[in-house]
Amino acid sequence: MVRHQYAGEDERFVRRYDYDDEWMIAADVGVGDDRMRIDVVGETAIVLVDEETAMEFDLPGSVESVDTNNGVLVVRGIQ
Questions:
Q1: CA–CA separation, 43 vs 26, rounded Å?
Q2: CB 3.0–4.6 Å: which of 1, 33, 35, 58 could bond 68 by disulfide?
Q3: For residues 78 and 63, is the Cβ–Cβ distance under 8 A?
Q4: What gap in Å lies between CA 17 and CA 3, rounded to an integer?
Q5: Which helix (H) or strand (E) holds 16?
Q6: Are 18 and 60 a contacting pair, CB within 8 Å?
Q7: Which residue in 58, 33, 21 sits closest to 43, CA to CA?
Q8: Per-residue CA distances from 58 to 28, 34, 45, 63 (Å)
Q9: What are the pLDDT digits (tens) for 16-51?
Q10: Are the C-beta atoms of residues 32 and 46 closer than 8 Å to each other?
């Protein structure tokens, strides 16, 4: 497993985990799940909070699932 960690200008943490055949990105968005929406366009994830863009990040491959739990976004995909 390889782990990468990023903090943007707004101090939100985004962590990327690379495994042999899959990857996972976890982002602490810090808002309730009902206020958050995630759009995937090509290899970019766009996180909207209250219908305004809160963050964007590049994805390393095809997306298999997108989940949220208590303000944490988890995107999983295959290499």
A1: 16
A2: 33
A3: no
A4: 5
A5: strand 13-18
A6: yes
A7: 58
A8: 16, 23, 6, 11
A9: 999 999 999 999 898 999 999 999 999 899 999 999
A10: no
Residue given tokens 């809160």 in the structure block:
54
The answer to whether the predicted template modeling score (pTM) of the entire model surpasses 0.85 is: no
> Residue 32: how many CB atoms within 10 A of its CB?
11
Here the tokens at position 46 are: 């766009």
Assigned token pair, 23: 């990857």
User: Both tokens of residue 25?
Assistant: 């990105």
Distance CA 68, CA 30 (A): 11
